[in-house]
Amino acid sequence: MSLWEYANPKKFMDTTGPLVPWIVGAAALLMAVGLIWGFFLTPDDFRQGSTVRIVFLHVPSAMMAINIWVMMLVTSLIWLIRRHHVSALAAKAAAPIGLAMTVIALITGGLWGQPMWGTWWVWDPRLTSFLILCLFYIGYIALWQAIEDPDTAADLTAVLCLVGSVFALMSRYAVWFWSQGLHQGASLSLQSGERMAAAYRWPLYTCMVAFGLLFVALVLIATRTEIRARRIKALQTRARLREGAA
Fold it and tell me: Which DSSP string do the residues of 73-115 spell out, in sequence order?
């Protein structure tokens, strides 16, 4: 069995249909467990107090905002190279979810940063690149809406995705590129060792998995909707051609 079989819309629909309810259920369960655990069952931090609990929303949403753009990059490259329509539709479906994650990360970052830094916003390298990534999400969605021909829209948005990947990379590794900046390093890092106490680390892991499953569920639902919309449009076009021929 080849992975490319799932680029066939019918195969994709038949395979993902039974999976969606299970993924939605798992995401809802883990989201409830992670947020309740993190917000109500963890102690206050000795420096940040109760504001530390924003980490359970901020870190997973920021992680997903960057990783969703990477997913869009991969599916856009598949479209440019292999011309599989499902990959282009998956990238299109993922963009609004990525934008929502980016906005959540920006808002929670401001809420978290104000007590720590004394300001809601600073032009820190990571924050600035993250804001630019948000603008790329908006531009990507707008470009899909502005172009009527779907294949042309897929081509142009794929190129835009390639350019925006620079800022996705900068959002993730800005603290490596610039030595100065208020934004802290990674809260969790395999290279840097343990940065977070277990009382916060395990509920954070749960929230991260929950956000990941939530994205998978939403992008599958949205991609399936895009495929159905494409089918309906094709049927309407055929019906108009038959009426014109008659």
Answer: HHHHHHHHHH--HHHHHHHHHHHHHHHHHHHHHHHHHHHHHHH
Rounded to whole angstroms, the Cα distance separating 99 from 209 reads 19
Q: How many residues appear in the chain? A: 246
Distances in whole angstroms, Cα of residue 136 to Cα of each of 168, 176, 204: 10, 22, 28
Number of domains in the chain: 1
> What is the tens place of the pLDDT at every residue in 159-200?
999 988 877 776 665 544 444 554 455 554 434 445 677 888
Domain that holds residue 86: 20-180+196-245
Distance CA 242, CA 148 (A): 22
For 198, 229, 245, the CA distances from 242, given in Å and listed in that order, are 66, 20, 5
pTM, entire model: 0.87
